[in-house]
UniProtKB/TrEMBL annotation, chains A, B:
Coiled coil: none annotated. Signal peptide: none annotated. InterPro entries: Homeodomain-like_sf, HTH_TetR, Tet_transcr_reg_TetR-rel_C_sf. Keywords: DNA-binding, Transcription, Transcription regulation. It comes from Streptomyces ruber. Residues 36-55 bind DNA. It comes from the Bacteria. PANTHER family: HTH-TYPE TRANSCRIPTIONAL REGULATOR YJDC, TRANSCRIPTIONAL REGULATORY PROTEIN. This is TetR family transcriptional regulator. One of its GO terms (molecular function) is DNA binding.
DNA sequence: AGGTTGGTAAACAGATCGGTATACCTGTGC
DNA sequence: GCACAGGTATACCGATCTGTTTACCAACCT
């Protein structure tokens, strides 16, 4: 599973790192349009000139923010997947565990990609590809965990069934992100994980019986 | 099922109606912060003075936009529920049908409430209550359709099970809204509806067997 | 010794933001 | 006959927006 994209268009000097850190926090908490570059510079303890020397434009900071957030999420996810072992069911459940841990620390307002998408109308905006890219990647992850990437392990299921089940898992996962961000009810990731477990047990049972 | 809230803080003169219509379209398509009052007034064919005479502030237009969108969604939903008849399972599936129809016409960018929430950081903002109110109402709807509101019809299930299943349906529904808005895959409402049907069949079967 | 890199400090530019003010017009109800 | 509600048209306000400019400084690499 390669970590595609993110060729890092910007050299991350110490100041640039502080800018990106401040921007990430502010963009996520208050929204992209609501945060000005002056505020980002002030919070990073940096002058506006430095900010524009490093990033060139606010738009570029937005792209870098999203790409960086995606990268950090995938790193957290990779750790959970590694700890889960080779069984498809365990690996799928590990995704929900990873999301629960991630959201507890960085997800008080739900999915940063979905939130950014709400503020970006232009589909040709470079951030748009980062956003939809992550969602596509997550869908491929779910279906891949159940099908192709499962290898010859017990619990692997047929491709068409992996596609269908992967999409359902995707819906549960996205729903949990929203429910968490809007505090619809407590512990949505646990709820989603439990449902995923039931689904996998049925599918795995059927696969084992086949 | 009462349509609570929305006491309409504003007298809807013809001009005000055009303002609200233009604001609704622009806010949803481009985001709230990205749209200025000058643009709203211009699109509505109205002067800024009229706009401020009717609504008093942009914030008020935002609140009215969300409350109105919520109201119109509930009207569409009510029609679908009415056509579905008294059986809980049919009524739950009707929610997904309603969302599919609604999203095909007004949902190209996903859930307007979730998108607005992404732009509003202040929890004391009057729009915040409208947003979380709708989500809570939807959760109550799902659990109610399966439990209390089901009356003495066949297919009614135990309260704790209605709560659990209602939350799962909520996750599927929110996930489908996101998947639709970000075009993660085709026809997410159909996918969610199919899964809901499977879940309801299992729960209803268990209830019937009890 | 000297150029390059990564900074600070601070002023500035042009546009746009939400919101207000003044003057004038028109239909309706009493 | 006349006030009033609901408008148009237009100019204006201070604040904030993204982005630029000029001047100076310290560290590092050759």
């Amino acid at each position: 599973m390669e970590t595609t994209g993110t060729p890092r268009r910007v050299t991350l000097t110490p100041a640039a790192r502080r800018i990106l850190g401040a921007a990430a926090r502010l963009f996520y908490e208050r929204g992209i349009h609501a945060v000005g570059v002056d505020l980002i510079a002030a919070e990073a303890g940096v002058t506006k000139k430095t900010l524009y020397d490093r990033f060139g434009s606010k738009e570029q900071i937005v792209v870098e923010y999203l790409a960086d957030r995606d990268e950090r999420w995938r790193a957290v996810l990779a750790r959970h997947l590694e700890a889960a072992g080779p069984e498809p069911a365990a690996r799928v459940l590990a995704v929900f565990d990873a999301s629960r841990a991630w959201s507890a620390e960085h997800g008080a307002k739900g999915c940063g990609m979905v939130n950014a998408h709400a503020e970006i109308s232009d589909p040709s905006h470079p951030a748009h590809a980062v956003i939809t890219g992550q969602k596509q990647w997550m869908l491929t992850l779910f279906t891949g965990l159940l099908g192709d990437d499962a290898g010859d392990v017990a619990g692997r299921i047929a491709p068409e069934e992996a596609g269908r089940l992967g999409r359902i898992l995707m819906l549960l996962h996205e729903g949990a992100l929203v429910a968490h961000g809007l505090r619809v009810f407590a512990d949505p990731f646990v709820q989603a994980r439990e449902e995923a477990r039931t689904l996998l047990a049925a599918a795995g049972g059927a696969a084992a019986a086949r």
